[in-house]
Amino acid sequence: MSPHREPPGRLFIGGAWTEPDDGHYEVIDPATEEVVGQAPEASRAQVYAAASAASAAFPAWSRTVPEERAAILDRAADLIQRDAAAHAGVARAETGATAATALGMQVAVAAARFRRYARGALEPVETGLPPQVNPAGPMGRAGVFGALAVRQPVGVVTCVTSYNNPWANAAGKVAPALAMGNTVVVKPAPQDPLSVYRMAAVLAEAGVPPGVVNVVTGSSPAAGEAAVDAPEVDMVSFTGSTAVGQRIAEVCGRGMKRQLMELGGKGAAVVFDDADLDAAVRGIGTTFSFYSGQICTAPTRVIVQRAVHDRLVEKLRTYAGYLKVGDPGAPDTVVGPVISAAHRDRVESYVELGRKEGARLVAGGDRPSYDKGFYVAPALFAHCTNEMRVVREEIFGPVVVVVPFDGGEEEAVALANDSDYGLIDYVWSADVARAFRVARRLRAGGVGVNTVGRNMEAPFGGFKKSGVGRDVGSYALHAYSETQAIVWSG
């Protein structure tokens, strides 16, 4: 069968579509609860075979000239754009994302990332260092010593992707890894793997040699565990929960494997009393409106100065009330379902917990009266305290909690930093000097000042339990590199 087609229900190993050893499992549309497709169940032996195929392909791929790798990644971007509507349809069906999000934030972002790392393949990998004059000694004769720092590919990289954005998240790992000359084993989240198999077919059509990209799936943790502990794997790039990331890190530590971890978040949005509240509401409201809050960068934890607490809460309540919850295929839908029945139940349990803890539920949190689908109405809690579990724990759903503070910068910073997480925080204030001053003190890998927008060349990653390492832009090329020193005597 042609590697340029994506047959249903098969693994992609060593450039061939392969029947799974352990059968198939159903992929469910979160909006309709209907079966979208059958995903293959890889055995541990098949995952190991994928790692072996990647290892066998590494020597030749790592020696390809950068221009060749760039051309392949560019073609992949073209091919993704060629069939964007079909790709977006599958992504919408298996993730529950709205049609606009599936096309504009999943498929289109994936194409942009392949395009970006086609350029990235051409970025210099050598940095000249100042010469050093060494006197004669135990190490040899006197001389002038030159040096280069050279970035080399790591080897075989296992890419474990999250369920909230199968196209963009996978592309954000695979594209820079390939650009640097690595080979990959991709283990998608079990909930929405079909998009990643489509990406594998795109890469095969673009000219990626057999074994350079491999995709394996499974409904249980077993396939992911094998993809991490396979002996040929040199690095693991993981996006997902902190708990799973900690288990992966233990395995990587035993094998001295490199790690790139983008883990949980509980983004603090610090709102001062001079802030443009409407702008703050539009930013914070993305927790409700963007992929039903299933996004680790969401500003879910609002820390607001007491003087504007009630006004901000009322504006957020009004904002949430305007959002249409329902069929993600409808053009006017803003909030679609969460990924699964189990996750809906988890989000609802946190809403009930918030009530018990004494937070005031201002809006939402109930289950919309649809016959099918895993829906949760956007929930807003006010008058929260930092000790509440709904404030401290990542819910990963359309739930915003509001914590008031009475003091100034010191109290705001202390409350924001009183968290196990530190991925992206936010500051809203009309005093830009204060906003930047506070931003520098926040223990987070990124801070948005009066915006939730991203600069896609800026480093991305977390402090504390939100992750290890940085990617995006050229930082991703460094993340998928080993640095080698070459020294010579002049």
UniProtKB/TrEMBL annotation:
It comes from the Bacteria. The keyword Oxidoreductase applies. SUPFAM superfamilies: ALDH-like. It holds the Pfam family Aldedh. Transmembrane segments: none annotated. Keywords: Oxidoreductase. Residues 17-486 form the Aldehyde dehydrogenase domain. The keyword Oxidoreductase applies. This is Aldehyde dehydrogenase family protein.
